[in-house]
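Holo model, nicotinamide-adenine-dinucleotide. Inputs:
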Amino acid sequence: MPETAELPDGVVTAVRGARRVLVLTGAGMSAESGIATFRDAQTGLWETFDPGQLATPEAWAADPALVWAWYAWRIRLVRDAEPNPGHRALADLAAHREVAIVTQNIDDLHERAGSQVAAHLHGSLLDLRCAQCGAPFEGLPELPEEPVERVTPASCAGCGGDVRPGVVWFGEVLPEDAVRETEAAIGALGPGDVCLVVGTSGIVFPAAGYPSAAAAQGATVIEVNPVESELSDLCHHVVRGTAAQVLPALVTVLDEG
Ligand code: NAD
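Output:
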């Protein structure tokens, strides 16, 4: 269990005073559950591949078995991972404040910790669908026991097309309903509310634009990240710690009244 963090006074005051908390999470949120961020080195078989090259429609068109093998391995990782204390703290936060979680993550760890997620901006790893006709694929195809470099994707029962993960690849359009829910959650913020920005490097748009939209609503923007990000300068407060250290400390502050 990681140590909890010391919180700056300004952060404590902001969180205590907020009615609503919008939480924007990125890959760092799940790092302490053992799911590597894109900027961290990948391990084992996949260390020589650039995720930014695999997570594209072009990579899928060129070699679906390579791309599916990478996702099959990530699905296993996610399935075997557990929510960390940061995920659980956000679920607890909903007992104290109106919470909306908007995540760039494609895993289901927020849900498994007990949170309702307002929007999965980049889709969900486990929502498989046909790459050709778009029909959902029920359940999960058999996954290899060990990471391997090529796995033939499952076939769609309707049209025979290859089945792909339900994620948004670089260059693809974000799901309309996720964008609508996010904009509604930002629009619901007012002065005195808080926007927590957890574990995102702030490079991938439009997600990287949401913290400044929250600030424009009058919300206090607080970054939780062990290192500086592209968003640090626009945040009102930065807490240099990990999700599993800082988020439980925030909930403790509210528990204490
Ligand atoms: P990113 O990889 O660009 O950045 C991760 C950020 O998290 C970095 O700023 C890093 O300093 C920070 N971080 C690392 N460990 C942390 C911790 N323990 N606590 C808090 N912060 C920590 O990720 P991104 O900004 O989310 O964007 C990249 C894309 O990667 C997104 O599109 C996302 O869908 C995808 N992705 C998702 C997952 C997942 O679903 N778990 C994993 C990897 C990548």
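The pocket of nicotinamide-adenine-dinucleotide is lined by residues 26-28, 30-32, 35, 37-39, 104-107, 122, 198-201, 203-204, 224-227, 229, 242-243 (CB under 6 Å). The first strand starts at residue 20 and ends at 25.
Archived with the compound record.
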